[in-house]
Design a protein that fits this description.
The protein is mainly beta. Helices cover 0% and strands 34% of the residues.
């Protein structure tokens, strides 16, 4: 809307005559207000301002009547009570990622079974007493020259004996090696024999004894003795130690009345293994027999276990012997291994 103010001069008319300022004719002022609302109220106040030539001019008084309501003024007032909270920023430090190694194939885990699986026996050492050059059932004529690895007994003697098939002694020789006590060495004694028949089944044994005349070690080989002819030597099949005793150990002291024996054995015949505890007087204070299965392709020595009850009245030095007897028509010990232990009541 546009404010329009019309000044009407009474005496001017349409003639364009200018009013005379000296006459002081009255003039009329009309003011029109336009309200911002749709119901605008037109109020006009007309006042006649007269000026007397003598008196002071009267200041006009303006009265404005309107229903206009001024709009409130919005004033932004900052809230000073607000507190700004600074949240710390977490900076993540990159960690070094370890790349796992590449496994080409999964690992198979074997569950233990209730049936014990025999483990491969470590390679046994060579026998303490052994004959290196003549094997079982060799055809030999007199004289025989066995090459053996031995150690003298506590009396310094090494005994070489040849037996006939009826158990008689064909020849026997005690070789003195007292200057070699505690040593192992090789010997090659010459063994001569005479037969009453053309041929005979016999056994060559080499053994030693301790200070109480107890058998300390023995090795043997079965032979076919010939009165005439030539030698036909069969090489030895196995020169490893036949008996490996894990428990007890040499020098152990045992008490409680029972000896627990654990070991491995390579059988030499169909006869069982005989374990004996012999005191200094030659009395057997405890013994046991062990049946061992034949060797197979996996194990050359078969594990065994035995419990030997014993009875002694005082601390006693005994010789713990392991031996095996022949199952052929010629009786006797094929191999013997021993060591000393002490038994307590």
């Amino acid at each position: 809307m546009i404010w329009i103010v019309f000044l009407i001069f009474v005496n001017s008319g349409c003639t364009g005559q200018q009013p005379n300022p000296e006459t002081n004719l009255p003039e009329t002022i009309i003011t029109i207000f336009d309200s911002p609302t749709s119901s605008n109220t037109l109020a006009a106040t007309q006042e006649i301002i007269s000026t007397d030539p003598i008196t002071e001019p009267i200041v006009p008084t303006e009265n404005i009547s309107s229903s206009y309501t001024p709009e409130p003024t919005l004033t932004f007032t900052p809230d000073l009570s607000a507190t700004t909270t600074l949240t710390p920023t977490i900076t993540l430090t990159p960690t070094r990622t370890i790349i796992p190694s590449r496994t080409p194939y999964p690992t198979r885990t074997i569950r233990p079974s209730r049936t014990p699986i025999p483990t491969n026996t470590p390679t046994p050492s060579l026998a303490f007493f052994r004959i290196n050059n003549i094997g079982p059932f060799s055809f030999v004529t007199s004289p025989i020259r066995p090459e053996a690895i031995v150690s003298p007994g506590e009396d310094g003697l090494i005994i070489v004996e040849l037996m006939g098939e009826d158990g008689r002694t064909i020849t026997k020789e005690n070789i003195n090696y007292q200057s070699y006590l505690g040593r192992r060495f090789g010997i090659a004694p010459e063994v001569s024999f005479e037969l009453e028949r053309v041929s005979e089944y016999g056994r060559l044994s080499i053994y030693t004894k301790d200070r109480y005349s107890r058998m300390l070690a023995l090795t043997s080989v079965d032979l076919l003795l010939l009165q005439l002819g030539s030698n036909k030597i069969t090489p030895p099949k196995d020169l490893t130690e036949p008996y490996i005793i894990r428990r007890p150990a040499p020098g152990d002291t045992i008490q409680g009345g029972v000896i627990v024996v654990q070991g491995l054995a390579r059988i030499l015949s169909a006869s069982p293994i005989i374990i004996e505890c012999i005191d200094p007087d030659g009395n057997i204070v405890g013994d046991a027999t062990v049946e061992v299965e034949a060797p197979n392709q996996i194990l050359s020595h078969i594990p065994f276990e035995a419990y030997i009850p014993y009875s002694v009245d005082e601390s006693t030095n005994i010789r713990f012997t392991v031996r095996q007897e022949s199952a052929s028509r010629l009786p006797g010990t094929l191999y013997l291994y021993s060591f000393e232990i002490t038994l307590e009541p």
